[in-house]
Amino acid sequence: MLEEDLAGWFVECVAAYGGRPATRWTRKRKTQLLELMLRSDPHRSDRSISEQTGFSREFVAAHRRRLLEKKLIPAGHRVGIDGKNYVVAKAAKGDA
Predict the structure, then answer these.
(1) Is the pTM of this model over 0.90?
(2) Would you put residue 54 in left (φ > 0), alpha (ψ -120 to 50) or beta?
(3) d(CA 74, CA 95)
(4) Rounded CA gap, 65 and 59, in Å?
């Protein structure tokens, strides 16, 4: 599916469900949407994406980690819901 088609599909779905996407989407559809969103705006916060899509913040964060590990999106600052830039410090493995 082309990125433009996926973006259009997402807008239609959000409109159809009163501003929030369906909660019963397949994992594949959610993954496609998140990949598109993260690649198009990698500095947007997980919380911001979560609020727009209705997906859990943990789901968004896990998907972001996978894309970062594959180096498909850049690491760096994030822009929060409030529009402020936040520095992201990578925690060492095993830190609580």
Answers:
(1) no
(2) left
(3) 23
(4) 10
Q: List strand residue ranges (DSSP E) for the chain, in order.
A: 78-79, 85-86
First-to-last C-alpha distance (Å) of the chain: 39
Instruction: Classify burial at 68, counting beta carbons within 10 Å of its beta carbon; exposed 0-12, middle 13-18, buried 19 or more.
Output: middle
- The SS3 assignment for 86 reads strand
At 36-92, the pLDDT tens digits run 888 888 888 898 888 877 788 999 999 999 999 999 888 888 888 888 888 876 644
CA gap 72, 39 in Å, rounded: 8
Sign of the CA dihedral with 67 first, then 70, 72, and 76 last: positive
